[in-house]
């Protein structure tokens, strides 16, 4: 990592907090635990802060009987149905029940007053209320470290994300940090926000861009890798920085892209192509960030070129710890 930046990975990734009946207490504990931003005060030269935001594992189900009418069936970015290619049956995000909603509501109300102006507070509440009235919770949004397998329970993705943004904002305000604040999200947050509907994914990208801009934070979407072939085919755009960029262009979002070069390598992109993508997105003026790992051979092979070029153009590089899915 360059000396002028600070990176905070997701805390305690290996210790899932199982959803319990006392989800409110778990949420309280999560939101009360500082994220480590105080480290900024020990490094006053750090002008770029990057934080890995929590992400949720995707859970799609195979529809054994498809009537073609069920509103629950999920769609891809262009509104096409998601198919399980081996079974040739549609996939869908199950309808879920929200948990911890009162906690998130209270938290948002409390923190908004502390980090924004009354006018902004009003506009943000309006945005959340409008979103809420239009979208039914679908998909088990259980952002790590919260997790409960197959329970069809979810935290409301918009309220959880907003609460998280407010937590970060409040913590940064308590430090001397005046530089950028980048929050790295996996694009599946848009899938959850849009309740698995292709056309809502674009609206979700707009809503998140608006919220983050109002709070003075940058959202950065990272290309991911899916293990399941069916997810790859259904939501493959999330694996490709160029496709993520297309989505952001479509909705006029200034959110950034985090190019995870190990993820690209895993899906078969050679270094030369990655370098080309980096240049293309940079030339389009897209805000960029790089995720890599020390053990990628970054010091001595062709990947080095990408890192060198990133340094030249001032693109922050984050050397991530070795973690699955990060
Ligand atoms: Zn990463």
Strand order, largest beta sheet: 1-3-10-11-12-13-14
* Overall average pLDDT: 83
- In total, the number of strands is 14
- Give the helices and strands as they follow along the chain: EEHEEEEEHHEEHEHHEHHEHHEHE
Describe this structure in words.
This protein has one domain (5-319). The protein is α/β, with parallel strands linked by helices. The model has no long low-confidence stretch (mean pLDDT 83). It contains 11 helices and 14 strands. The chain is globular and about 50 Å long. The strands form 4 sheets. A 7-stranded parallel beta sheet has the order 1-3-10-11-12-13-14. A 3-stranded antiparallel beta sheet has the order 4-6-5, with helices on one face. The chain has a two-stranded parallel ribbon with strand order 2-8. β5 and β6 form a beta hairpin. Zinc ion is lined by residues 222, 260, 291, 320, 326.
Keywords:
326 residues; alpha/beta; 14 strands; globular; binds zinc ion
Sum this structure up briefly:
With 326 residues, this protein is α/β, with parallel strands linked by helices.
Question: Which secondary structure elements does this structure contain, and how are they paired or packed?
Answer:
Elements: E1 5-8, E2 17-18, H1 23-32, E3 48-52, E4 61-62, E5 83-84, E6 89-92, E7 97-98, H2 101-115, H3 118-134, E8 146-147, E9 153-154, H4 157-173, E10 180-185, H5 188-193, H6 198-214, E11 218-222, H7 229-235, H8 241-250, E12 256-260, H9 261-266, H10 271-283, E13 288-292, H11 303-312, E14 317-319
Residues 222, 260, 291, 320, 326 line the site of zinc ion.
């Amino acid at each position: 990592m360059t000396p002028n930046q600070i990176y905070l990975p997701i805390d305690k990734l290996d210790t899932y907090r199982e959803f319990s009946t006392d989800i409110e207490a778990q949420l309280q504990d999560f939101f009360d635990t500082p994220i480590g931003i105080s480290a900024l005060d020990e490094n006053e030269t750090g002008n770029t802060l990057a934080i890995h935001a929590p992400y949720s594992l995707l859970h799609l189900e195979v529809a054994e009987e498809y009537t073609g009418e069920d509103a629950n069936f999920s769609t891809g970015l262009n509104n096409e149905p998601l198919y399980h290619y081996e079974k040739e049956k549609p996939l869908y995000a199950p309808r879920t029940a929200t948990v911890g909603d009162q906690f998130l509501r209270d938290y948002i109300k409390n923190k908004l007053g502390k980090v924004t102006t009354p006018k902004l507070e009003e506009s943000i509440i309006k945005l959340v209320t409008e979103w809420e009235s239009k979208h039914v919770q679908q998909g088990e949004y259980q952002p790590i470290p919260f997790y409960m397998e197959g329970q069809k329970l979810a935290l409301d993705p918009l309220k959880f994300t907003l609460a998280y943004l407010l937590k970060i904002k409040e913590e940064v305000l308590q430090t001397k940090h005046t530089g950028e604040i980048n929050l790295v999200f996996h694009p599946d947050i848009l899938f959850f926000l849009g309740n698995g509907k292709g056309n809502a994914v674009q609206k979700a990208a707009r809503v998140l861009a608006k919220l983050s801009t109002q709070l003075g934070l940058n959202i950065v979407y990272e290309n991911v890798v899916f293990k399941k072939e069916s997810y790859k085919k259904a939501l493959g755009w999330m694996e490709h920085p160029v496709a993520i960029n297309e989505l952001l262009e479509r909705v006029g979002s200034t959110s950034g892209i985090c190019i995870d070069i190990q993820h690209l390598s895993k899906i078969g992109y050679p270094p030369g192509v990655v370098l080309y993508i980096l240049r293309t997105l940079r030339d389009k003026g897209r805000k960029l960030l790089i995720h890599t790992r020390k053990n990628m051979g970054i010091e001595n092979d062709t990947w080095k070129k990408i890192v060198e070029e990133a340094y030249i153009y001032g693109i922050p590089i984050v050397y991530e710890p070795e973690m699955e899915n990060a």
